[in-house]
Amino acid sequence: MTPKTIVEKQIAALSASLAPLPPEFAAWAEKSIFLKWGVLSRGKFHCLDCSHYWKPDSRKAECQNYIKCAGCRGKLKMQPYNKTHFREIEYSAVLETTEDFQVVRIICSHKQMKKGFAPTYFHKEVMQHWINPKGEVRTMSLSVNVFSQAYDQWKYYSPLEIRPKDFQNCAKYRIAPYRVYPKLKIISSLKRNGFKTSFHNIAPQLLFSALLKDSLAETLLKASQISMLTYYLTSSEQHLKQNWQAVKTCLKNRYVISDYKIWEDYISLLRWFKKDLSCTLHVCPDNLRETHDRLVVKKRATQRRKYLIEMRSEILEAQSIYAEEKKDFFGLCFSDKNLTVSVLENVQDFMEEGDNLHHCVFTNEYYRKKNSLILSAKVDSQSVETIELSLKNMEIIQCRGMKNNASKHHKQILSLMNRNLYQIKERIKKRTVN
Long-range contact list for 12-17, CB < 8 A, 24+ apart? Predict the structure, then answer.
């Protein structure tokens, strides 16, 4: 994309004047961001780092996931397959400042390995995130192969080009580096807003942008609520800003939330009962799940007792809206032995699902979520888990069974869902075309 605005032209000029990566970066990356690998081939262990090979001491050693190299003494992760060539790809970042911008330089590194040979490395800068003091981000990146199934299939021969503002909605923007080069250059406003040296497994561009423009993120970092900050910045379905009064109550009492999705559902229940969200007794329960489940039962009983007639009319009204929004997905059903996963097609089914599994899929009106698809997993026609899928990001937001716990079929359900996501994507494409 050709720079057009004053800011875009300024960033393009500054990018061209950036110094190359530090000479010691390659040595640091090769030592810090890659694992040491080994492989078992023809009855011998081969270290893919120092090219040493030796016979195992026992048959039991051949089954281990990690072993120690007899040559370099490094801890080796064993390759599951014996191949001729091996490759590992990792991302790292270098942080720099120029004028008023905080620059996050993302480097993609390749490690090529072969038995009996020393590994070779390749490093290429693939993105630059330019963050101004207001937290606004503009990105320069290489082009990608649009016909590849991988979203980061970079064209390494292409130049860094300025990307549109909506690049922040792209999966490539959210790439988090495995390591950050330890010689950090940070603008003063980030230090003022609470950043020290740790990124807490959050992509630097996400953390820096939030700290500069979002007082909520700044407050969470300064309060050392790292897990809540991570949830706030990385979950597409979080509602901490809407629940800020309750969040402040948690911060004041240093309350640790064990499950954020359950807690936010619980807060919505408190709001439904018109409880005071600044009250520690309500917002910070000793047993979150038990208190949540008790309120779900109470709300359901209240609905049935006081609003049974109105609820029936609401279900009929909600059914027409729900059917119109989700009709393209009706009929989807995935099977694996005695397990079936299917889309909930009636609002009445939401009520039955909530009653059977004692959770809040109906109570909290999940059928009104436009960007979510709700499915039911059944074993021998009995509901075992309810799945919420984000239609925006094609991610499984939550998958919960009896009283919001995972069932013994949890892994099988997730595997079946992931194998069949393509069917849902196809329905979305057809809906878009029509």
Answer: 12/140, 12/162, 14/98, 14/99, 14/101, 14/130, 15/128, 15/130, 15/140, 15/160, 17/98
Those residues whose C-beta lies under 8 Å from the C-beta of residue 281, and which sit 6 or more positions away, are none
Tokens at 83, concatenated:
């191949």
Query: Cα separation of 93 and 49, whole Å?
Result: 23
Furthest CA-CA distance within the chain: 77
Tokens in use for 349? 């089914």
Instruction: Count the alpha carbons within 13 Å of 376 in the hemisphere toward its beta carbon.
Output: 27
pLDDT tens per residue across span 377-406: 999 889 999 999 999 888 999 999 998 999
Only one residue has tokens 């064209």, namely 155
Q: What is the pTM of this model?
A: 0.70
Structure tokens that stand for 177 in this block: 């580096």
The residues, ordered by sequence, that sit 6+ positions from 69 with a Cβ below 8 Å of its Cβ are: 36, 38, 45, 47, 49, 50, 52, 75, 76
Which residue, 159, 163, 202, is CA-closest to 180?
Answer: 202
Cβ atoms of 86 and 79 closer than 8 Å = yes
- Tokens 């500054």, residue? 14
Q: Is 90 helix (H, G, I), strand (E, B) or coil?
A: strand
Residue 107 exposed, middle or buried by CB count within 10 Å (0-12, 13-18, 19+): buried
The sheet carrying 66-68 orders its strands as 53-54, 44-47, 37-41, 75-78, 66-68
Instruction: Check: CB of residue 302 under 8 Å from CB of residue 273.
Output: no
CA 102 centroid distance within chain: 24
Q: What is the pLDDT of residues 73-102, one digit of tens each?
A: 889 999 888 888 999 999 999 999 998 899
Q: How far apart are CA 367 and CA 384, in angstroms?
A: 19
HEC states along 29-89? HHHHCCCCEEEEECCEEEECCCCCEECCCCCHHHHCCEEECCCCCCEEEECCCCCCEEEEE
The answer to whether 400 and 416 are in contact (CB under 8 A) is no
